Amino acid sequence: MSGGRVYLLDANIFIDAYKKYYAFDIVPSFWEKIKQQAEAGRIISIDRVKDEIDRYHEEDELKIWVNQVFGRWFVSTDNEEVIESCREIINWAYHQSQFTDAAKNEFASVADSWLIACAKTYNCALVSWERHRPEKKSRIPMPNVCLAFHIPYIGNTFDWLRELRVKI
């Protein structure tokens, strides 16, 4: 994809920034930096994250920005390599006795498994606010899966921005 590490963003990176600490009218430079890093080939996300943002946001600033500015950096999950990685990850999840059947079924149906599959396929670092929870049973945390598959994981926006050396 580019020289240097590529970062794959979960929906909560966009949504939390928008709702909690980097609103467009207060810190527009954050959104410009995301665009610049995407243009440089350092940031992507997946179509299922875009779908999630589109589904849960009216015509607000985030949805408009995602569709008008960032839209071309949402990678399609509809390719054989990603699908095969997703199968492998879901198969792994179903063989983990720690998790409930409901957690396994949910994991197979949401964007999380696809994010991890894309990170694995494209050798990206996955960026999300989810925490590693080895004791968790009712949900399969993405950091747990990334650890099992040796996929780099960054657990918050601030560490990710530091790693990119972005100043806003």
TrEMBL record:
Pfam families per the UniProt record, alphabetical: DUF4411
Lineage: superkingdom: Bacteria
InterPro entries reported in the protein's UniProt record: PIN-like_dom_sf, UCP008505
Protein name per its UniProtKB record: DUF4411 domain-containing protein
